[in-house]
Amino acid sequence: MKIKNIGLTRRGLARSLVVPFAVLALGPLATAHAEPVHGGSMTMSLDPQPSILVSALNSSSPVYVVSSKIFDGLVSYDENFNLIPRLAESWEVSDDGLTITFHLREGVTFHDGEPMTSEDVAYTFMEILKQRHPRGKSTFQFLEAVETPDDLTAVFKFSTASPYVMRALAGAESPIMPKHVYDGTDVMKNPANTAPIGTGPFKFGEYERGSHIILTRNENYWDGDKPYLDQLVIRLISDSASRAAALESGEVQYGAQYVIPLSDVARMDANPQLEVSTDGWGYNTSVNYMDFNLRRDQWQDVRVRQAIVHAIDKDFLVDNVWHGFATPADGPITNRQADFHTTDVPHYDFDLDKAAALLDEAGYPVKEDGKRFSMTIDYSPSGDTYSQTAEILKQNLAKIGVEATLRAADGPTYVRRIWTDNDFDVNIFAASNIADPVIGLHRFYWSDNIKKGVAYSNGAGYASEEMDEILEAAQVEVNLEKRKELYKKMQQLAMTDLSTYPIVYINWFSVYDKSVKGLNQTALGVYENFANVYLED
Amino acid sequence: MKNLAPYLARRIGQGLITIAAIIVLNFMILHLAPGDTVDLLAGEFGAGDPEYLAQLRAEFGLDQPLYVQLGQYFLNIAQFDLGYSYRNATPVLDLILDRLPATLILMLTTILIAFTSGLLLGVVAARRVNTWTDDLISVLALLCYATPLFWLGLMGIVLFSVKLGLLPTGGMYTIGGRFNVWQSTLDVMWHLILPACTLAVYHMAIYTRLMRASMLEVYNLDFIRTARSKGLRRGRIAFGHVLPNAILPMVTMLGVQVGTLLGGAVMVETVFNWPGLGRLAFDAVFQRDYNLLLGTVIFASALVVLINIATDLFYAVLDPRIEVA
Questions:
Q1: Which of A50, A259, A434, B70 is a Cys-bridge partner for A440, taking CB atoms 3.0 to 4.6 Å apart?
Q2: DSSP H/E element including A414
Q3: Are β-strands A373-379 and A402-407 bridged in parallel, bridged antiparallel, or unpaired?
Q4: What local confidence, expressed as pLDDT, does residue B284 receive?
Q5: How high is the mean pLDDT of chain B?
Q6: Is residue A22 over pLDDT 50?
Q7: High-pLDDT (> 70) share of chain B, %
Q8: Which strands sit side by side in the sheet containing A41-46, from one edge to the other?
């Protein structure tokens, strides 16, 4: 069986048999108005400053942004997660899902002139990603070997079917690394980590810490006359008000994710020179969750957890905290992953009377001092939105007699308190669904993922045999329809058990000058390689 | 100044002890904060497994007992090795030397602007004490002293960069610009205007108030009355007699403020994206980058110690009654 995208799309098999070029032609490229223009330099902003520039060794967001321009992966993804060929021209998946054969593009070279071969692919997956990528060990746990029958064929051998791996092959997540640069060196201290050598559309130019990164056009890029830009300047601006000013003055032409405060978006949107867009976040869409620490006595009765979530006013949060850049959540899988998302889950509307009644039932009556019990709320330090959500929850809880105390912390303190010391009652945070539920979601609900010291693991301490069975089945299920059914059950169970509770789906946005074209054409958004980006005259 | 050599030796010896104490203190305080670099990295990665994190801790030497880490650090320092910043994947010394020129340029320019304008305004205010000129200067100084720096900086950007388009919003030079030496110098100066003026405003206010008070104090001394009674012109009294005697507190303040400037520049460096040391140290705290923070602390404290010695020597030059001993 030769198929192009092993049933990962909504449109099913018929569409998946279409040759890759047709997928491209049907995609957003066809809607571009004018002929792309060559030349010019685009400046974008980035914060925080990336530590290294190779995403195979560091999965933090700013590293992904820079690395994805320098390194291509085997494939990319359009907004519906259809596969777009990159370094792999085509691929076949065996019926049992245990073998995936990639046919590599001919004539691709690294920036230092060395040809890219199947040896590099094998080295990348077995020696770098499986060993050194922070999530590589779990994503590629069933990948046993990569065979290289010839220079342009890489055969992936799995011990257990791992269909989700097909969604972890973009350049940002799994960049193809040069074996000749890394083999036999101390990988973590290799100088190429801050001056990378890849196959992508842009070559590394210079990195001035605290100031900027310059990437220059790769003249030998495989894709026709792309990239269009001569140069990409990435300015490291740490103050959000300064970033806003740089966009308004035209010094910076593009910024994404947390680029400006949400309260400034309306002003940017009103600026005739600037565009605000929520396109291009399919791959990296985030969900704002709240973990109940199930080790605590007061959460043992599910009615108490129900009461707390009934006190969350999602609509109010969307309007006032997120300024409209969020959607009230249904289940734990975001609506941007349309094939697995479902609305058919228990919902807990904002209803303080019901919350109070549930607490009465559960044996937490209002005491003489007007209170039922007290609790703490911890929240992620990575933005005002989480502290504001916590403050609003605190006020609502006070109305039903629950006294909440907010606890602020800086990054390392927060991580240690929540995931190492498990010292919290509830924790408000955001996490990405990362392309496939196996990679982005299982970590919160699978009992195997109750791991001390690992940030963004199962911090709630949730362990359910039923849930484990569903997740383990979904992980190896090759049939898309069956997988969808499993995730529907998974979400219904998650919304019944209330361990990690989804509050809103976050709609991240990018802000850019209207002269910049070709952004946000795929699900990768800011993690795309920018080969298609150009500046209109 | 016959005692200069032993004096300097003693002061530098004291300085070294001070710096060692600062290292130990900072080391302890930093380790009191919960979480380490690996916790931060784990948070940023949004993933990881316990084995991987343990492997990182071992690589970074964080699995050793605290006293071993501290001892190792002093051993390295003795060999002039400031260590490696794992968060930045670069040796600490490289990181600091990269940022040092930017910090020095900003600091020296700021001091120059603040000191001279503060001196002038203080003198003018003191000479016209209790007139509208004096009131105006005093109110201005108070305003400058009380205005938050980041707000002032942002307003500067909004006015001069966004609205008028005269000055750049931030950075230290035009990135990717192909300039000769002369053009590059002008380019840096052009980028320097807003951050230096913003930072100088606050310090100027301090110097103005100090200079005014100091001048007025000297005006009340007996020898000034003598000078007046022997018929010296007002200008001659102000600049020939009062100013030289009133300037000593300003020099003291200068020595103290260099230290504050290093720290206080963080806000301005952040707003104007100026690649200086303050920002480097600030980030190092939140990244639990022990080596980098201690490295910047050593540099900054050495600078402060040296400047204080220089200030004390300068006293002796300014005022012959003071001797180094």
A1: A434
A2: helix A411-415
A3: parallel
A4: 86
A5: 87
A6: no
A7: 97
A8: A202-208, A212-217, A231-236, A41-46, A254-257, A509-513, A274-277
Strand partners for A42: A232
- Mean pLDDT over each residue of chain A, to the nearest integer: 90
The residue type of A228 is Y
**Distance to chain A for B34, nearest Cα, Å:** 5
Tell me which chain B residues have a C-beta less than 8 angstroms from the C-beta of A134. Answer: 42, 45-48, 52
Chain A within 8 Å of B53 (Cβ-Cβ)? yes
* C-beta atoms of B48 and A236 within 8 A: no
Cα–Cα nearest to B219, from B123, B139, B137, B131 = B123
Q: How far apart are CA A141 and CA A160, in angstroms?
A: 9
Q: What is the CATH number of the domain that holds A407?
A: 3.10.105.10
Residues of B in Cβ contact (< 8 Å) with A52? 89
Q: Cα angle vertex B91, ends B104, B105, to 5°?
A: 10
Q: Which of B30, B32, B44, B157 to mutate to test the interface with A (most CBs of A within 10 A)?
A: B44
Q: Which domains does chain B have, with CATH numbers?
A: 4-92 (no CATH), 93-318 (1.10.3720.10)
Q: What is the pLDDT of residue A33?
A: 55
Domain span including residue A324: 286-506
Q: What is the CA radius of gyration of chain A?
A: 24
What the block records as the tokens of B169 is: 């919003």
Q: Tens of pLDDT along A441-498?
A: 999 999 988 988 888 889 999 999 999 999 999 999 989 999 999 999 999 999 999 9
- Per-position DSSP letters for A116-171, written without gaps between them: P-HHHHHHIIIIIIHHHSTTHHHHTTTEEEEEEEETTEEEEEESS--GGGGGS-ST
CA distance B143 to chain A (A): 23
8-state DSSP, A109: B
Q: Which residues in chain A touch residue B42, judged by CB atoms under 8 angstroms apart?
A: 134, 415, 419, 453-455
**What's the rounded Cα separation, in Å, for the pair A466 and B164?**
64
CB neighbourhood size of A163 (10 A): 23
Residue A485 lies inside a defined structural domain of this protein: yes
- Tell whether the model's pLDDT for residue A31 goes beyond 70: no
Q: Which tens digit of pLDDT belongs to each residue from B118-127? A: 999 999 999 9
- State the pLDDT at residue A2: 39
Whether A455 sits inside 8 A of B45 (CB atoms) is yes
* Within-domain flag for A486: yes
Q: Round to whole Å and give the CA distance between B139 and B31.
A: 44
pLDDT in tens, A53-86: 999 998 888 999 999 999 999 999 988 889 999 9
Listed residue (A456, A396, A449) closest to A431, CA to CA: A456
- Give Cα separations from B86 to A160, A239, B91 (angstroms): 36, 24, 8
What is the mean predicted confidence (pLDDT) over A357-369? 94
pLDDT tens-digit map of B93-120: 999 998 888 988 998 899 999 999 999 9
Q: How far apart are CA A51 and CA B44, in angstroms?
A: 11
Q: Does B98 touch chain A (CB under 8 A)?
A: yes
- Residue written as token pair 């359910």: A464
Domain count, chain A: 1
Q: Give the gap in angstroms from C-alpha A142 to the nearest C-alpha of chain B.
A: 16
Interface predicted TM-score of the whole assembly (ipTM), two decimals? 0.79
**CB contact (8 A) between residue A414 and residue B43:** yes
Give every CB contact of residue B282 below 8 A, 6+ residues apart in sequence.
B266, B270
Q: Which helix (H) or strand (E) holds B120?
A: helix B92-127
pTM recorded for the entire structure:
0.85
Indicate whether A201 belongs to any domain: no
For residue A169, pLDDT beyond 90: yes
Name the band, by pLDDT with cuts 50, 70 and 90, for residue B27.
confident
Provide the chain B residues 244-273 that lie in CB contact (below 8 A) with chain A: 270-273
Strands in A68-129 per DSSP E: 75-77, 83-85, 88-93, 99-104
The residue count of chain A comes to 537
